[in-house]
Design goal:
By secondary structure, the chain is α+β, with helices and mostly antiparallel strands. It has 3 domains: 2-91; 119-177, Signal transduction histidine kinase, dimerisation/phosphotransfer (DHp) domain (Helix Hairpins), CATH 1.10.287.130; 185-333, Histidine kinase-like ATPase, C-terminal domain (Heat Shock Protein 90). Helices cover 57% and strands 15% of the residues. The strands form 2 sheets. Strands 2-4-5-7-6 form a 5-stranded mixed β-sheet. Helix 1 (2-26) runs antiparallel to helix 2. Residues 26-37 and 290-294 have low confidence and may be disordered.
Length: 338
């Protein structure tokens, strides 16, 4: 910062001296006082340059102090020390804008750190149970407490599949959020694809005496990654089947028109509370924690569905009313602009 002070001082001083020189060229009869006597030119030269130097030094110190304060607080943030807000007192417009940028950056860093810590905790929580099960069975086999039978290996295989699915879901979600998810696009008949998913989930719906209906308007091809879009629809309809009570009803409606495809999945389940609705697309978030965990969910389904829809240039939204049910609506372009 000392170098900056010197540079600013020299810049202001040279500018002031230049203005003084130009002024004396214009006003050659300048050196007279109120009594009509003439000041000696050397004295005027010294006094003027002392004044210019003093003013330049004050300006350099004033500006540098604000920059030093801003730099010091930025250094505190880089070291991980908490600061409520970056402040430099009264400042010019440019410095004030830079201060506001620092404050926004600090807020984003804080939020990112919180999300990262929450993600680590959630992943550890999800992995704890399957790892404990696998370890318990392996220890039992190693200790000779039981024979290594096929039925004893089945639970281990199920838990390893669950871990693999969790890792794959996290990888896909990270790639989608970073805009680096590779899509294998192709043309597919939209309505037959939806009907295929419905037929696949009808067995689970019939087991709970749930009426699973489909209706819509229009038909045609959709240019998409078939595997990803099927996963989105399976997540939406599967969640509706899973959380709709016995004897409930699920309506799947679609509209193929105006270069867009809109699909809505509505159920008459318990619904989602208004304060929880904004968070249902977050990683590992569960509106009903105990029920979701007992059904084997990882809390990533809706987050993945939303990211896959957005990667295709579409949207995924949710509307819910407690006691009446929930509706998820996905809109996709038939052919993406990009």
């Amino acid at each position: 910062m000392i170098k900056m002070r010197i540079k600013l001082f020299l810049s202001f001083f040279m500018f002031g001296a230049f203005i003084f020189f130009i002024t004396n060229l214009v006003f050659m009869d300048f050196p007279r006082n109120a009594f009509g006597t003439t000041f000696p030119l050397p004295a005027i030269f010294v006094i003027s340059h002392v004044l210019i130097g003093g003013i330049s030094y004050l300006l350099a110190i004033t500006i540098c102090r604000k920059w030093e304060s801003l730099a010091a607080q930025a250094e505190e943030i880089s070291r991980g020390r908490s600061l409520s807000q970056v402040s430099v007192g009264r400042a010019e417009v440019e410095i004030r804008l830079l201060t506001e940028s620092f404050n926004r950056l600090k807020a984003e860093l804080t939020q990112g750190e919180e999300l990262r810590n929450r993600l680590v905790a959630d992943v550890a929580h999800e992995l704890r149970t399957p790892v404990a099960i696998v370890r318990g069975h392996l220890e039992m086999i190693v200790d000779g407490a039981g024979e290594c039978k096929r039925e004893q290996l089945v639970p281990l295989l199920d838990e390893t599949k669950r871990i693999s699915r969790l890792i794959q879901d996290l990888q896909d979600l990270n790639l989608a959020e970073a805009g680096r998810l590779t899509l294998d696009r192709s043309w597919v008949q939209f309505v037959p694809m939806v009907e295929e998913i419905i037929s696949f989930l009808e067995v689970e719906a019939e087991a709970k005496s749930i009426a699973l209906n489909i209706e819509g308007t229009g038909d045609g091809e959709l240019y998409c990654d078939v595997t990803r879009i099927k996963q989105v629809l399976i997540n939406l309809i599967g969640n509706a089947v899973r959380y709709t009570p016995k004897g409930g009803r699920i309506e799947v409606r679609y509209l193929y028109a105006n270069g867009e495809v809109t699909v809505s999945v509505s159920d008459n389940g318990p619904g989602i509370a208004p304060e929880k609705l904004p968070y249902i697309f977050k990683r590992f978030y569960r509106a009903e924690h105990s029920r979701s965990r007992s059904s084997g969910g990882t809390g990533l389904g809706l987050a993945i569905a939303k990211q896959f829809a957005e990667v295709h240039g579409g949207t995924l939204e949710a509307f819910s009313k407690v006691g009446e049910g929930t509706t998820f609506t996905m809109t996709l372009p038939v052919y993406p602009q990009e």
